[in-house]
Amino acid sequence: MFILKLLLLDILTCLCFCGCVARNTLKQGERFNSSDLLVSQNGAVTLNFIKQEYDRDWDGKDFGFYLAINYTVLLNETRGDLWGHPIWLANRQDPIADESGVLIIDETGLKITHNGGNPIQLFALQSSSPSPTTNINLVLHDSGNLVLQHANSNGENITLWQSFDFPTDTFLPGMKLGLSRERNWSLSSWLTPYIPAPGAFTLKWEPVEQRLGSAQRQGFVDEW
């Protein structure tokens, strides 16, 4: 097992220092498919399509493909509880049936196209407002945050969308839980240990009680 870890570390290190292979940015007009990989600058996290169970019944298991952020082998020792568990999923409620998923940035925004139906829109550019339509990139940060940003004429990067605003079941440094004018940040458990669809429990801010609380489908459960 130790040798396997070293081999994986060597492979990832080579990828991180070979600019022609590893990258942390998806540029507008590029296609990111099931065989591609984004690696954050220090190699802490990766973005790629993974195959994951999404249903289970008497007839067996059904599997789908999800766009996921994962910790790498570099953090296996310090983040052991999350090793192999995605820390974020773009389409946890919309699994893709096959390997046809493609992440793109086009004139409509950020989306995942696939053979099974309508695109999965992660961020839509508003045609009625002066939204930027060029110089848009998607960057995977070492924090685990996936950020869609626009470089304006002054060279400043303006955040248009970020995965930290749409947490799944994992709370990371830099994330928020609570309410704002535009957001309601909360965490929701997986349906089962293997199925990433939202499950029975949600951790969210209760505005009346002014505290964090764990809510269950059948009612509120006070655990704080």
From TrEMBL:
This is Bulb-type lectin domain-containing protein. SMART domains: B_lectin (SM00108). It comes from the Eukaryota. Residues 23-161 form the Bulb-type lectin domain. Keywords: Disulfide bond, Glycoprotein, Signal. The keyword Oxidoreductase does not apply. Residues 1-22 form the signal peptide. InterPro entries: Bulb-type_lectin_dom (IPR001480), Bulb-type_lectin_dom_sf (IPR036426). The keyword Signal applies. It holds the Pfam family B_lectin.
